[in-house]
Amino acid sequence: MLKASLLLCLLYSVGAQADSSWQKDSSRYLEQLLKNNPAQLQELKESELLEFYRERKYKLLWSNEKGRLDRAYDLLHVIIKAKDEGLDPADYYFEEFNKYWDSTGLGESVQLDLLLSAALYRYSNDVHSGRLSASDLDPDWHIKNESLNAGRLFADVGKKASIAQLLKELPPQHDGYQSLKRQLHNFRELAQQGGWQRLGWGPVLERGMQHEQVVPLRRRLKLTGDMAVDPFPDMDMYDRWLEEAVMHYQQRHGLEVDGKLGPQTRRSLNVMVSDRIRQIRINMERWRWLPRKLGKRYVMVNMTGFELYIMENGSEVLSMPVIIGMSYRSTPTFSGLISYMEYNPYWTIPKKLVLEDIVPRQLRDPSYLSRKSIKIYKGWANAKEIDPKTVDWSNVDEDTFHYWMRQEPGPKNALGRVKFIFSNPYAVYLHGTPDRHLFDRVVRALSSGCIRVKDPVRLASFLLNDGTQQKEEEVLANIHLGTNQGVTLPIAIPIYLVYWTAWVDQDGKMNFRHDVYGRDTALNKLFSS
Are 20 and 94 in contact (CB under 8 A)? Predict the structure, then answer.
């Protein structure tokens, strides 16, 4: 018994010495490698990685004398599955570190350690904050996200045997992102099955018509789940089930919902599955540009969907149509805090709009300003109202116009009866509008940059309280007073003006929209594969 114990102690001592020797040799090798060639990998130029290895005295992170550690397998699994996040494993040294994986040599283990650390550094930044800077890809994106703290991440990795949960938490956890991730999987499965066939040119098809494209249209709509019921799959008659399926498709794609196969619907149906996959990946990237915490209660305006939502604890409690800026006066993407609102607002008209819009209308119709309750003033501290007849409108330009204009509160005011103000440097705000008929249009890029909301009374009641009938009546009572009144909200509410061209709605339906401002263009190149 004593001999056996001595033998075990001896073996342990030899093993410990071997372990210690391997660790010392690998640390010495890694130290020399980093000191002699610190920039052999792009990520090693980053101070966090070099500092991380210095602090742990160059002890390897991913291997020991017995082989790869569990955390290395966790990272390998995530890199292999990078496509699930709309990313490419090849971007994270997958082919390179795969060469060293099965080799237990000291030199190979050191090389692999650097590759795995570089892969984690790049992947974690990409999946957390986006592959490239938002402002580099989209100059109209002004929402800031917190950068990943790589030093803290690597410190946490070094303390854990398994990092599976740590890696799982790197991507956005927002429902919007996670829903797109699931749809990306579904559309890739469609692509593997061959996708769908294009519909050739043809006439406008509608209910009651018979045509050879009806059967291919049925098949196309079944693939994307738009045709849930089809009792006559081989019939070439455009029946009510097909009409309902087309309407379902049109609604998901922001088209006129008429149930007909017209030019726009045909063009949308012919967008190939590979393009839809790229569109989903682009919008997953945009989600990575957003802050991880949006707030328990916030307002989100989806510009391409022409829709405003109020979200509470992850659920939509209010939605309404909106109007956004015209393509040449596009609304920027940014965030702020809604803290203040006005009943019966004045509209101080920006000089650019005065020169581009108001002056030409006044030239055509000398009664335009009076009809629209617009007054013209000179000076600010002691503003003096000017008679429009005294202005030579034919000679007005940037240099000669030394006045400013303001529209009086009332039913003609371009801001409607309620204005919602939030912090931003772009002079953009939410407001009502007297032109309510414009909300009947499918595409509503019609404003000069601000966001017009369809139901400002309802929105005000939600921002002031919880949208109760009593609160709506209070809002209406204040409006009916007819006087300009400012109201500070009880709690400032975050607002995000975002630009999604692909998203999953509250009913779980995949939505795609036209790139109304052309902001997908730069991202298309990035996600070309």
Answer: no
pTM as predicted: 0.91
Catalytic residue, candidates 128, 248, 253, 431: 431
Amino acid 42: pLDDT: 77
Record the tokens describing residue 399, joined without a space.
Answer: 């240099």
462 backbone φψ class: left, alpha, beta (φ>0; ψ -120 to 50) = alpha
Which residues, in sequence order, are bridge partners of residue 496?
300, 335
The type of residue at 491 is I
Q: Say whether 142 sits in a helix, a strand or coil.
A: coil
9 is catalytic: no
SS (H, E, C) 353-416: HHHHHHHHHHHHCCCHHHHCCEEEEECCCCCEEECHHHCCHHHCCCCCCCCEEEECCCCCCCCC
Q: Averaged over 21-33, what is the pLDDT?
A: 90
Closest CA to 190 of 275, 74, 125: 275
Question: E strand or H helix at 319, and its extent?
Answer: strand 315-325
Q: Which of 517, 349, 341 is nearest to 430 (CA)?
A: 341
Tens of pLDDT, residues 98-138: 889 988 789 999 999 999 999 999 999 999 999 888 888 88
Select which of 128, 248, 450, 480 is catalytic: 450
Kindly report the number of other CB atoms within 10 A of residue 212's CB atom. 9
Sequence-separated (6 or more) residues with CB below 8 Å from residue 426? 332, 334, 449
With CA atoms as reference, report the closest residue to 484 among 341, 368, 352, 271: 341
Residue 38: pLDDT band (50, 70, 90) is low
**pLDDT per residue as tens digits for the range 448-459:** 899 999 999 999
CB 51: neighbour CB atoms within 10 A? 13
